[in-house]
Structure formats: C-alpha cells, structure tokens
Automatic annotation (TrEMBL):
Residues 49-231 form the Carbohydrate-binding domain. It comes from Pontibacter mangrovi. InterPro entries: Carb-bd_dom_fam9, DUF5916. Residues 1-21 form the signal peptide. Residues 240-832 form the DUF5916 domain. GO terms for biological process: carbohydrate catabolic process. This is Carbohydrate binding family 9 domain-containing protein. It comes from the Bacteria. Pfam families: CBM9_1, DUF5916. Keywords: Signal. GO terms for molecular function: carbohydrate binding; hydrolase activity, hydrolyzing O-glycosyl compounds.
Length: 836
C-alpha cells in the first residue's frame, strides 16, 4: 500500500506540466474587472449614527454598488444590490451601507462577542491609508450590531487589534442598514493635503454563504490589499491629538491547595490582591503611536491547554494576553518573536537542582515571572517605512529552599530583565518589502544576555504572479568571557498566483543558532530543501464549489556533521461541495529510514527512525445549520514491531438560537507499540567522574491520550456575554519492554530495572467562566472564575472515567477576579469639560 501511495504521488508530477498549460488558458478567461474609484463627500455637519441614513446629505454622496462575488463562484455580479456611501469631516469618515435582500428571514443575525463573527451576515470596509497595497485597516459590523476590526499586513490579518469607533444597524423588511463613524484617531494616515486611499467593501450573505467585494478580489491572485479600489476626494484632513488612557482596577482572590502529599487531608491557602494599573496610547505624530501598559494584570486571560509532553522539545502555548496580541504585526515579522518568553518561566529555574543544594527541599519555585511594564511605538511614514519599537521589563523572581534543620535560603531564578525589539519594514511596489529585525535580551548580573539580528525580503513581479523571498538571521548569546554565535538563512522562489502554483526553498540552521531567548525554534543544525506544486480550482465544477491540491517533498540533512536526516513526501486534496460540505485527504510518506538526533537527549547519539506512512482525512458540515460537526481521522504505520497509531476527533456544535450556542470537542490519540526515550544512564565513581560511556534507554510503550472540551456562550446583546469553557486531558503511558540505543541508531533488547517506574498517568483540567460587559466604547467590566488541576503520577489508572472522577475530587486551584477598565479619550474629555 505504501508503494502504491508513493507511486501515485510521483505519477502526479508529470501531469503538472499539462495542468500548467491548462491553467494559463483558464487564467486568461478570468473576469477582468477594472479598478474602481469612489469619491468621498465632505460635510459640515456629521450625520447621526443611528442606522437610518435619513439625512439628505447621504443622497448627495457617490454610490459604490455592483459588488462582485468572491465565493463560492468568483466573478458574477451580485443579484441583491449593495449601496455604500462615504462622507467625511475634520473628525472622522462616515460610512452608510444598505444591503438589499429577499426578506428579513434571509438576513442571518447571530449575536456574538466583539470580534466573534458567528453565523451571520456582515458588512465591512477596508482602508489602505498609505496606499502601499500591503497594510490596511478593516472595520466590520453584523446586522446584530457586533463590531469586528482588524489590521492587515504582509503577515496576514490580525483580528486581535481593537479600535474605538461607532456603528449602528437596523433591519428593514427587505434590507438591513449599517452606519459607521471611524474617527481619525482610530487609523493612521499621512499629512498630505489631498489623499488617495486604498478602499474596498465586503458583504457576506450567510443564507447562501456568498461573499461579495466592491472591487473584485480574485482568489487565484496572491495578496489582499493589492486588490482594493481607490477612495478619492479626501482633502485637508489632519490627524487629531491621539491621547487616551485606560485605567483599571482589579480584585483577585486565589484559593490553592497545600500538603498535596496527602490529598485526603489537604488544606487550602488563600491569597487576595487588590490593585490597579493603566494603559496609555499617545499619538507621537500623524503616523506613530506610543502604547504603554503600566503594572499589567493578566489574571483573566484564558487558561493554557497543558498536555503530557513526551517529546524532547518544549510545549508551545498560544498567546492570550491582550497587550501582546494587539498591534504586534510589525514585531511578528519573520517569526523571531515568541511573546510567551516575556513573563514565562525563570531563566535559571534549573539552578535549584544543582549539586550545591543537594539535601534541600524546594518549598516554593514560581513557574512564571512577573512583567512590570511594557511599551510599544509603531507607525509608518509617507514613504512606506514601518518602524516598531517594543520594550518590556520583567522583575526578579526567587525560589525558596529548606534543609532538614529548617533553615531556608532564597535563590534568584530570574534577574531583572529587559526585552527589546526593533523593526524597520520598508514597503515596496508589487506587494514587496524588505525588513530588518533586532531582538535583544539584557539580564542584570552574571546571567547571559542575548541578541538576534534578522533580515527579510519579498520581491514580486508587477502582476504579483511570481515572487522570491528569503530571510537570514544571526543569533548571539553573551556569556561571561565567551560568546555563542549562530546563523540561519532561507531563500525561496515560485509562482504565487493562478490555478497552478509552485515553490522551491532552501533553509539552513547552523548548529549554534539559538533564537530562543525571545523567539522559539525546536530544531537547529539542519539543512532543508523543499519543493511543492499545487493546482487549485476556484470555480464550481461537477459537484464541487472549489478544489485545492498539493504535492511536495522535503529533504533534510544534518548541518554539522553533514549527514542525511530526513525525507518526506506529502500530498493533500481538499475542497467544498455544492451542499457546503467540506472534506480533505492528506498523505505523508517517509519512504526510507531517517535519523532523529533529538529523541536520544544526548549529543552525538541518533535514533534510526523507521520507514512509515500516514493517511488522514477530515469532514466539515455546513455551519449555517443549527447543528454542524467536524470529524477527523489519521492512521500512521511503521516498519518497526507492530508500531502504528490511530487518532480521531469529533467536534460538534449546536446553535440553540441567535444568543445561545455550544461547542464540544473530543479527541483520542492512540499509539500502539510506540518507541520512545526513557532515560540516559550515567556511570560515575565516588568522585563523581564518569568512568563509562552513558547508555540511552528506549522503551516499547502504549501511549493513549483523550481530550475533552466543552464551551458555551450566551450573548445577552452586542455588548454583554457569558462564556464557559471546560478542558480535560488524560494521558497514560505503559512500558512493556526496554532497549538500549546502539551507536548506529538501532536498538537492542536491554534488561532495565528502574528505581522508579517510567509509566505515566497524567491529568490536566481547566474551567474558565467569563462575564463581559462593554458598558461604553473601549470600556469593560469582566468577572472571571477559573479552576485548574494538573497531576502526573507513575501509577497508571486504566479507565478514563476513573481518572475524570479522581480529577474532580482532587484539590483544585481556584481564582475569582473582577476587573474594570474605563476608556478616556483626551479630546472627548476636553470638550466635555469646556461644555461643563
């Protein structure tokens, strides 16, 4: 079967030349709509934002209409007209849109939280204020009045960005109306007397799952902002003084267990904290903004989904803290910034296990550090130069140790640390750019400092059909008396638009390249080559609305020493049927024995990874329906013992009505006759000197993991919601045999009798309940209750419900917090004081 799959993939390759010829002809047949232009109308009196559009001035404005379908079948004009007008004055631009339809029943209007779209129609406006065809702003509103906003850049779209703006909607018998006020303080633009902005509008008609743009956006063409129209007529507008304060007060109560050695008699301790802080935003000039957070409080962010990690690499967590999510598109360029490093684990946490502290018991060792403040300065000049400066300071952290006599010592695990990022991003023609990035970590005292400098570029031809891109970086760690330097580079080229696309790339990481003080990289010391070919059909055919196909291969060698490491051949096909059922199939082959230099956890040793293949698939039903579900299934087989794995997941969702909905997720990952690292055995004499080469022990094991998640939300209105999220993970590892790793990467049977069983029984549980009320623009009251439990034992419990019951009975850590943020705009406050 493996041979057949491999041959099938390779036999597809010769077909690509004929597909290429066909695609070139099809691309010539594509709709060729001219770029559209809309005139903005200056007004002396601002319209009232009430969803009525009853002021006479609206009828005098230029009308944007004849929207063009983007999905599911790109190209045709809309059947139900959309009409949009734009007004402006010295303070803001005003958008009035009428979306005609069949009846109110055809207008979907599910309620959701801010930036949560749901099953609904929507209308959006997109602005490229510097006309660089890369960067832009998006403002979206639904018929229920839910607001969404986003930033657009070469990194894609960032929905975590939030601005303060006004909107109002109204439903009529055969239409719905959206009215917006976007103040100039919410966007950035140049100081030119007469300006031309990139402009587009989008309408989503959920009853037919159709998406329409005013200026045609071709899904076969790479890029988004480069496919917008133009907004003209903006004259003599100036950026206002942009100064706002968002002070907060918060109360935090924590209850956590003590004496975990005896769960039946566990007592609990309590911790109460009342505090406050502030976020400040200041417009340095018309383009640049200072964003600062003082004494930040992240107690209310969503809990991490912690899992049993058997790999040699750290677990990567999502970022949920607002300060690190909003407006960070510049700092994320090149993927050199992993924000969880700031406020993450102490850099010297492992020092508590040094031989010098043998005989001491660790009584307290915080797993996270505390951020004191953070500052961001970002913006873009008229010439398209984006500049970003990010700085954060993390305070000292200590662990406490106690000896048998009760003597306690404090050990500094984290010195006072400064994190800094500087980015210079020059936008070029044809959706191209060149970017310089520098990250720097400076620690007080003798702990080492770190620095990384990176360069990125993308150059595309005039039609954005072909492009080359690349990046390079130098990492440095400055230890007392020594410096570790490493480097990486990547260069790639390909056809990025059209039905037929291809790419080729070469990437190299040196053995000393290490960006992990402020970034994240799992493996270095490698040289990788990849080629991929894809053929996509964007127009409906047969029973399909669209179809996307890809085949490719990755060849990887060790950089030092130069040895073969890995070969992967992959392919996938996915698409959407005309009944809006989506499905996909993927194949992954490693047709030769490859070499894993990381699983042994010992430098210079390697594990010969067996030939294997993976076959997977997924199905997603129509989300318009009240009940919908996603299903996934993956099977992997190895040429080693009876080694194989089976993973599957079911993710149903049920919408009770436009206010109440539930999502459930179930995943099971089963690895049979799995092979993995157990321990490095070191042989030392009485003086602590190794007298024999270490042995690396592997184990034959059964690994089973079950993940359950349930989330529900009740949205009272477009400003108030209640959310519940529950997560539970149970994983167990049973070892049946042990092996010793040989120098050629093979395994030989080994009689291993460990002092402590390597078997694992792991449980983690999170519960987050969040009440949010946006009582005024930019202002929020939130009440959060969180419950958490994590446990890892060496005695395996065989049944899931026994583990789940044990988890619920075990001592939990609980927190309850209340936080109030209030947005204060300086100009608004000044006007009110003058009137008063």
């Amino acid at each position: 079967m493996k041979l057949k799959l491999l041959l099938a993939l390779f036999f597809c390759m010769p077909c690509l030349s004929s597909l290429y010829a066909q695609s070139e002809k099809q691309e010539q047949k594509k709709y060729n709509y001219p770029q559209k232009t809309l005139q903005a109308l200056r007004v002396q009196e601002a319209p009232k934002i009430d969803g009525e559009l009853d002021e006479a001035i609206w009828q005098q404005a230029d009308v944007a209409t004849q929207f063009i379908k983007n999905r599911p079948n790109p190209g045709p004009l809309e059947k139900h007209p959309t009409e949009v007008r734009i007004l402006y004055d010295d303070a803001a631009i005003y958008v009035g849109a009428i979306m005609h339809d069949v009846s109110q029943d055809s207008i979907y209007q599910e309620l959701g939280r801010r930036d949560d779209l749901g099953n609904t129609d929507f209308f959006g406006i997109f602005l490229d204020t510097y006309l660089d065809e890369i960067n832009g702003f998006g403002f979206v509103v639904t018929p229920a009045g839910v607001q969404l906003d986003a930033r657009y850049s070469s990194n894609g779209e960032d929905w975590s960005w939030n601005a303060v703006w006004e909107s109002s909607t109204k439903l009529n018998e055969t239409s719905w109306v959206a009215e917006m006020k976007i103040p100039y303080s919410a966007i950035r633009f140049s100081s030119k007397q007469e300006q031309v902005w990139g402009l587009n509008f989008m309408r989503n008609r959920q009853s037919t799952r159709e998406g329409f743009f005013w200026n045609y956006v071709d899904p076969a063409k790479d890029g988004f902002a480069n496919q917008w129209g133009r907004l003209e007529g903006l004259r003599n507008i100036e950026a206002p003084l942009r100064l706002s304060f968002t002070p907060y007060i918060s109360a935090y109560l924590e209850r956590y267990p003590t004496q975990l050695q005896n769960p039946d008699k566990t007592s609990h301790a309590h911790n109460f904290n009342f505090g406050g802080g502030m976020d400040v935003k200041y417009g340095i000039n018309d383009a640049f903004t200072l964003d600062m957070t003082l004494i930040p409080d992240f107690s209310q962010v969503q809990s991490d989904n912690r899992v049993l990690n058997l790999s040699p690499f750290e677990q990567q967590f999502d970022e949920n803290r607002p300060f690190f999510l909003e407006g960070t598109e510049l700092f994320n360029k090149g993927d050199f910034f992993y924000s969880r490093r700031i406020g993450g684990g102490p850099v010297n946490a492992g020092a508590i296990y040094d031989a010098a502290y043998e005989g001491y018991t660790v009584t307290e060792s915080p797993s996270e550090t505390k951020m004191i403040n953070g500052t961001k300065v970002s913006g873009r000049t008229e010439s398209g130069l984006g500049i970003g400066i990010f700085n954060a300071v993390v305070g000292e952290q200590y662990a406490e140790l106690e000896d048998k006599e009760g003597n306690r010592i404090k050990l500094k695990t984290q010195p006072l640390t400064n994190y800094n990022i500087a980015v210079f991003d020059q936008s070029l023609k044809n959706n191209s750019y060149v970017t310089l990035v520098n990250t720097n970590v400076m620690r007080q005292g003798s702990t080492y400092d770190a620095n990384l400098t990176g360069l990125l570029f993308r150059l595309a031809n005039k039609g954005n059909k072909y492009a080359i891109d690349g990046k390079a970086a130098l990492s440095q760690q400055f230890h007392p008396g020594d410096t570790d330097r490493g480097y990486m580079y990547r260069v790639g080229a390909g056809k990025v638009s059209g039905n037929f696309q291809f790419s080729a790339s070469h990437t190299l990481y040196s053995d000393k390249y290490n960006p992990n003080d402020l970034g994240i990289l799992f493996t270095n010391n490698s040289s990788e080559q990849e080629v991929s070919f894809s053929y996509n059909i964007y127009d409906p055919f047969w029973k399909m609305l669209n179809l996307y196909t890809t085949v490719g291969a990755v060849h990887e060698r060790r950089f030092r020493p130069n040895k073969f490491q890995n070969l992967v051949v992959y392919g996938n096909v996915n698409g959407t049927f005309k009944n809006f059922l989506s499905a996909g199939i993927n194949v992954n082959l490693e047709p030769v024995v490859t070499y894993d230099f990381f699983e042994p956890r010992l430098n210079g040793r390697v594990y010969a990874f067996p030939v294997n293949y993976t076959l997977g698939g997924w199905v997603s039903t129509d989300y318009r329906k009240r009940f919908a579900t996603d299903v996934s299934l993956t099977y992997r087989s190895f040429d080693e013992h009876n080694r194989h794995s089976l993973s599957y997941g079911v993710y149903p969702r049920f919408r009770v009505n436009n206010q109440l909905s539930f999502n459930y997720g179930f995943e099971a990952n089963n690895r049979y006759d799995d092979m993995g690292f157990v321990k490095v055995l070191r042989y030392k004499n009485e003086q602590g000197v190794e007298w024999k080469e270490p042995d690396v022990v592997f184990g034959l094991r059964e690994v089973r993991s079950v993940y359950n998640s349930l989330s529900g939300s009740y949205t009272f209105n477009n400003r108030m919601s209640l959310r519940l999220r529950v997560w539970h993970n149970w994983s167990k590892v049973n070892h049946t045999k042990f092996f010793r790793l040989q120098h050629n990467g093979g395994l030989e049977a080994y009689q291993y009798e460990p002092e402590q069983s390597p078997d694992v029984n792991y449980n983690s549980f999170n519960l987050d309940m969040v009440y949010s009320w946006w009582f005024a623009p930019g202002s929020e009251i939130s009440v959060v209750w969180k419950n958490a439990f994590e446990e890892q034992l060496n005695e395996v419990s065989p049944f899931y419900f026994d583990n789940f019951s044990h988890t619920l009975r075990s001592p939990q850590s609980s927190t309850f917090s209340v936080k109030v943020l209030y947005y204060l705009d300086y100009l608004t406050l000044q006007r009110k004081l003058k009137k008063g």
